[in-house]
Amino acid sequence: MPSEPLNFDRLVEILAQAHGALEARAAKAVNVSLTLRNWLFGYHIREYEQSGADRGAYGERLLETLAQRLQQTGLKRMEARELRRYRQFYLTYPQIRETLSTQLPGLQIRETTSPESGSAVPTVPAQILLEQLSFSHFAELLQLDDPTQRAFYEAEALRSHWSVRELKRQIATQYYQRSGLSRDPAVLSALAHRQAEAVTPQQVIRDPYVFEFLGLKPQEVVTEGQLEDALLDRLQAFLLELGHGFCFEARQQRLVIGGEHFFVDLVFYHRVLKCHVLIELKNDAFKHEHLGQLNAYVSYYQQHQMTEGDQPPIGILLCTRKNQELVEYALAGMSNQLFVSRYQVQLPDKAQMAAFLHQAIAELGGDPTGAGTG
């Protein structure tokens, strides 16, 4: 019996379903490849430490030296801290070896015994771990020293498809400890999973480990919308055209703070003021947490990026919605009020910046007043 002709609504539905299914498949494939690569890095590093022919020449500086050489080849995210994490990943999850014959047929690695191979804690099958947890999940789990606690969070994350953010939240709120103390752990578990955020293919692809593994630029992945991206393009050009001493340094500059990844929208160096200028653009109404975020970035730059002769960095927060496109300046704890007057003379004033944002949003088809944005 011939199938009925498609109507337009059904066509849209079929195409959306096909896209979703293949997007999830692509995200899963990228995740598996990245996780296997990091496990193999850990394996080979550990093998070299134990039996490398010239390992004595590097001693305690092995990972630092290796990180430098790998970076010279163009590999991203090869700091010594990350190499140490990969080695720990291999040692903590030896069962990943079981997947190599199917995932990477033909690959031969030597059988070794790792510290946790004899653990009495039941382990999740390696294939399930590999396919359903991203490496960012593993990075969070590796911070748990107790194998039982780590296995608990593995099982819970798998059972409800937790996002990395949700896993971090559950660990931070001591879900494991609360479950042990609860009179009815099943009720607590049901509540936790009902309120949890599940992982999506988009989150997997936007993972900092993934986009560096794929060779993507941060702005290709991190920016949240086309309007915001276009505004950043125009803002960057606008500040350079003013000729007030702005020298462009970076777009979506990645900062690693306490093992977490953050991105500064625009970073300039001001050659007259001799300081960094960090700019955060929020395609939204002003919220107090925006200042806290920018304040953290400025404080990080003050501690880690200032060199001799530099003045303390400046943070500029731009909000574009609900008539709050007026500039908010975050001073990041700077107490020298003379410096405030000094930089206000050099930087574009608030009215000038407000007019620019208002016009740019209108030209890009956005709503400069923020009306109807909720």
Short overview:
The chain is α+β, with helices and mostly antiparallel strands and 374 residues long. The protein has helices at 8-51, 62-72, 80-92, 100-103, 126-132, 135-141, 147-160, 164-172, 175-181, 185-194, 201-205, 208-213, 218-221, 226-242, 288-304, 337-346, 350-363, and strands at residues 246-257, 260-270, 275-282, 314-319, 327-330. It has 2 domains: 8-110 and 121-205, no CATH class; 220-363, 3-Layer(aba) Sandwich (Trna Endonuclease, Chain: A, domain 1), CATH 3.40.1350.
What would you note in describing this structure?
This protein has 374 residues and is of the alpha+beta class. Helix 9 packs antiparallel against helix 10. The chain is globular and about 65 Å long. Strand 2 and strand 3 form a beta hairpin. About 6% of the residues have low confidence. It has a five-stranded mixed beta sheet, sandwiched between helices. The protein is 53% helix and 11% strand. It folds into two domains: 188 residues, no CATH class; 144 residues, Trna Endonuclease, Chain: A, domain 1 (3-Layer(aba) Sandwich). It is built from 17 helices and five strands.
